[in-house]
C-alpha cells in the first residue's frame, strides 16, 4: 500500500466538509504502520468517496513483485449501499459484482431463468456456447481483473478461498459497525423445514445440548451427502432439484465446519443452540473471530473499516478478532448543524413486553399530535416490530388518520417503501427494521418517531450468554448504535433538516447508561433534547393529504421545525405524557 497516494486518489473535483482532513488523518494512520484503520464518519461525510481514495492507494501490478497482492476490495453489508456505488459516476472504476441470483440467463428460452438455475447448473457436463457473454461470468471476469472490485459483504465472505477473488492489498468495508453480528449471522446454521430439504423425514432431538447437536449434525451431514450424491448421479436436474443440490452442498459444508470446530480443543469459538416450537434448530457461534479470519482478515494486507457508529474501539476489536494495538481510530467531525437535527422527548412510558399494552395507545395518541404538527410533511415511524406496527396502525385508523398511514410486511417491504417515497402525499410510513441504510433526504421525510428502544432480544442464546457474563455495556452499545443509525435517516446533508421524536422512556435510560460511548456530535444532540409544542389530541386532526413542500422562513423554531431548548426537558405538554420511566427492552414481536 502507498498511503501517500490517498489524497491524490480522491475522486471528486473538490472536497466538502471534513473530507480533506479525514484523508490526511487516514493516510497518517496507515503510515504509522497500522494494519487496520477505523474511520468513524457520520452521515454526510461522503464515506464512499473516502473509501475510493483509500482503495486507490493499493499496490498496483506495476509496483508489485511476483506473488505480491495487488488491487483492492470495496465491500458493504448493505445492498442499497452497493446500488449507490454502482450508480455514482465518481465511482465508475469500482467494478461491481453480485451473486448469480441477481443475473438472468441469455440462452434462448431461458431469459427468465436466474443464472444460478440456468442449464449450466442443471445438466452434467453442459458446455455453454455463450458463457463468454453471460452477464454473471462477464462481470465476474471484469471484477477479478479490475484494480477495485466491489461486492456485498455476503458475496465477499462466500468467495473466501476462491481462485478468482484472491487476497488483495487493500480492503475497505463500508458500514462496518455490525461486522461481528453479520459474521455471527452468516456463520449461524439454521436447521428447519425451510433450510433442510428432507426435514419432515428426520427425527430431531428435543432441547439438545451443544454436544448432542454436534452428534446430530454429523449424522445429518451423512444423510445430506447421500441425497446430494443421488442428485449428482442424474444427467439433468430440474430448477428445483438444482436448488436442492446447492442447498445440500452448502448445508454439508456448514455442518462439517461446525462439528470440526466444536471438537477442536484449541478453537476459540463458543457455540450455542436454540430450538423453536416447531423443533427447528439454530446453531450459533458466540465468537466469530475464526470465521472472520478466513472470510475477511485473510483476504487483504490492509483494511479500512468505515461507519458512523463504531462506538468503542477496544470493544469493537475484541468482537471481530483484531489486536487493538494494530488498529487506529480516525474520528471525522459532523458537519450538519445540530439545530437541523433536533431530538424531541415525547416519551409515553416503557415499551417492554410487559408494559407495552398500556403504552402503545399513548404513543398512538401522541403520534396523531405529531402528525398534526407536520400536517404537510412526510414522516416515518420506526415501529421496531410487526406486532407494534399492526397495533399502531389499528389505533391510528380508529383515531381517524388511517388514510395517511402506510405499512408493509416482510414480503413487500421494498415495494411499499418505494411507493411511499414516490408519493406526493404527506403520508406516514410505519416501518419495521429500517433504521439503517435508508436515505430520506429533504422532503422524502421531515420527521420520524422511534417507538421503542432497540435492545437485542434477551431470549436469543447469544445475547443471554453474554449477559450472564455481565456484558451489559455491550448490550447498551448495541442499542445505542441502532438509535444513532436511525437518527441519521432524515437529515442527509448540511442543508437538510428533520426532527426525531423519542416515544419510549427506555431511550432516556439508554442515553444515561451508554453516555461514555456516544460520539461527541450525538451527545450534543442529546444535550439539546427538549419537549416540543404539540397541538392537542383530536381525532382526524393529523389527516391532511396535502403535497409536502419545503417550508420557508427561519430554522430556529417556526411551525413544525422548532428547535428544542437546551434545558433537557423530558416531557410533552398535555395529558398524553406517560408516568413510567425506563429500564430496558428487547428485540422481536414477543
Write the layout of secondary structure elements.
Elements: H1 19-31, E1 36-40, H2 47-55, E2 72-76, H3 79-86, E3 95-96, H4 119-122, H5 135-145, E4 148-152, H6 153-158, E5 168-173, H7 179-187, E6 189-191, H8 210-232, H9 239-262, E7 271-275, E8 281-285, H10 289-295, E9 300-307, H11 313-320, E10 327-331, E11 343-345, H12 356-373, E12 379-382, H13 386-398, E13 405-406, H14 413-422, E14 428-431, E15 447-450, H15 461-468, H16 472-487, E16 499-502, H17 506-513, H18 520-527
Characterization of this structure:
This protein has helices at residues 19-31, 47-55, 79-86, 119-122, 135-145, 153-158, 179-187, 210-232, 239-262, 289-295, 313-320, 356-373, 386-398, 413-422, 461-468, 472-487, 506-513, 520-527; strands at residues 36-40, 72-76, 95-96, 148-152, 168-173, 189-191, 271-275, 281-285, 300-307, 327-331, 343-345, 379-382, 405-406, 428-431, 447-450, 499-502. The protein contains 18 helices and 16 strands. It is α/β, with parallel strands linked by helices and 590 residues long. The protein is globular. The strands form three sheets. Strands 3-4-2-5-9-1-10 form a seven-stranded parallel sheet, with helices on both faces. It has a six-stranded parallel sheet with strand order 11-16-15-12-14-13, sandwiched between helices. Strands 6-8-7 form a three-stranded antiparallel sheet, sandwiched between helices. Helix 8 runs antiparallel to helix 9 and helix 12 (356-373) crosses helix 13 (386-398). The two termini are 49 Å apart.
Amino acid at each position: 500500500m502507498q498511503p501517500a497516494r490517498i489524497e491524490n486518489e480522491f475522486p471528486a473535483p473538490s472536497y466538502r466538509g471534513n473530507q480533506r482532513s479525514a484523508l490526511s488523518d487516514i493516510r497518517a494512520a496507515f503510515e504509522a504502520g497500522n494494519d487496520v484503520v477505523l474511520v468513524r464518519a457520520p452521515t454526510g461525510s461522503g464515506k464512499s468517496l473516502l473509501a475510493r481514495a483509500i482503495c486507490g492507494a493499493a499496490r498496483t501490478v506495476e509496483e508489485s513483485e511476483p506473488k505480491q497482492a495487488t488491487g483492492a476490495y470495496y465491500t458493504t453489508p448493505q445492498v442499497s449501499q452497493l446500488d449507490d456505488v454502482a450508480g455514482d459516476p465518481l465511482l465508475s472504476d469500482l467494478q461491481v459484482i453480485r451473486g448469480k441470483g441477481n443475473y438472468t440467463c441469455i440462452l434462448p428460452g431461458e431469459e427468465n431463468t436466474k443464472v444460478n438455475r440456468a442449464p449450466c447448473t442443471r445438466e452434467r457436463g453442459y458446455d455453454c456456447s455463450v458463457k463468454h457473454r453471460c452477464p454473471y461470468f462477464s462481470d465476474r471476469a471484469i471484477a477479478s481483473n479490475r484494480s477495485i472490485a466491489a461486492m456485498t459483504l455476503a458475496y465477499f465472505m462466500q468467495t473466501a478461498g476462491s481462485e478468482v477473488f484472491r487476497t488483495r492489498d487493500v480492503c475497505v468495508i463500508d458500514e462496518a459497525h455490525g461486522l461481528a453480528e453479520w459474521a455471527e449471522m452468516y456463520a449461524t446454521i439454521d436447521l428447519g423445514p425451510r433450510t433442510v430439504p428432507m426435514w419432515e423425514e428426520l427425527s430431531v432431538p428435543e432441547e439438545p445440548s451443544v454436544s448432542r447437536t454436534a452428534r446430530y449434525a454429523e449424522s445429518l451431514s451423512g444423510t445430506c451427502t447421500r441425497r446430494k450424491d443421488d442428485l449428482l448421479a442424474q444427467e439433468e436436474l430440474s430448477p428445483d432439484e438444482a436448488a436442492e443440490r446447492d442447498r445440500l452442498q452448502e448445508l454439508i459444508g456448514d455442518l462439517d465446519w461446525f462439528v470440526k470446530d466444536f471438537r477442536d480443543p484449541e478453537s476459540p469459538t463458543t457455540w450455542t443452540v436454540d430450538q423453536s416450537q416447531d423443533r427447528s434448530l439454530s446453531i450459533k457461534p458466540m465468537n466469530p473471530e475464526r470465521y472472520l479470519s478466513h472470510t475477511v482478515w485473510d483476504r487483504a494486507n490492509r483494511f479500512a473499516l468505515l461507519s458512523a457508529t463504531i462506538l468503542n474501539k477496544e470493544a469493537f476489536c475484541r468482537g471481530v478478532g483484531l489486536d487493538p494495538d494494530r488498529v487506529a481510530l480516525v474520528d471525522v467531525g459532523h458537519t450538519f448543524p445540530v439545530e437541523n437535527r433536533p431530538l424531541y422527548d415525547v416519551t409515553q412510558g416503557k415499551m417492554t413486553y410487559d408494559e407495552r399494552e398500556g403504552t402503545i395507545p399513548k404513543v398512538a395518541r401522541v403520534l396523531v399530535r405529531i402528525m398534526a404538527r407536520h400536517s404537510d410533511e412526510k414522516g416515518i415511524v420506526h415501529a421496531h416490530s410487526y406486532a407494534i406496527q399492526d397495533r399502531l396502525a389499528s389505533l391510528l385508523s380508529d383515531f381517524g388518520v388511517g388514510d395517511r398511514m402506510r405499512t408493509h410486511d416482510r414480503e413487500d417491504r421494498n415495494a411499499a417503501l418505494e411507493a411511499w417515497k414516490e408519493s406526493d402525499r404527506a403520508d406516514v410510513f410505519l416501518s419495521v427494521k429500517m433504521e439503517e441504510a435508508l436515505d430520506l433526504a429533504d422532503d422524502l421525510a421531515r420527521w420520524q418517531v422511534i417507538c421503542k428502544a432497540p435492545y437485542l432480544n434477551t431470549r436469543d442464546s447469544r445475547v443471554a450468554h453474554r449477559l450472564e457474563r455481565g456484558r451489559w455495556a455491550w448490550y447498551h452499545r448495541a442499542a445505542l448504535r441502532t438509535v444513532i443509525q436511525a437518527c441519521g435517516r432524515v437529515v442527509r446533508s448540511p442543508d437538510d433538516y428533520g426532527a426525531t421524536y423519542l416515544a419510549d422512556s427506555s431511550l432516556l435510560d439508554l442515553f444515561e447508561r451508554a453516555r461514555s460511548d456516544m460520539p461527541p456530535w450525538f451527545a450534543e444532540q442529546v444535550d439539546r433534547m427538549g419537549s416540543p409544542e404539540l397541538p392537542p389530541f383530536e381525532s382526524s386532526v393529523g389527516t391532511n393529504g396535502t403535497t409536502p413542500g419545503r417550508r420557508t422562513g427561519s430554522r430556529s423554531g417556526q411551525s413544525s421545525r422548532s428547535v428544542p431548548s437546551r434545558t433537557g426537558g423530558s416531557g410533552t405538554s398535555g395529558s398524553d405524557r406517560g408516568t413510567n420511566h425506563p429500564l430496558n427492552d428487547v428485540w422481536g414481536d414477543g
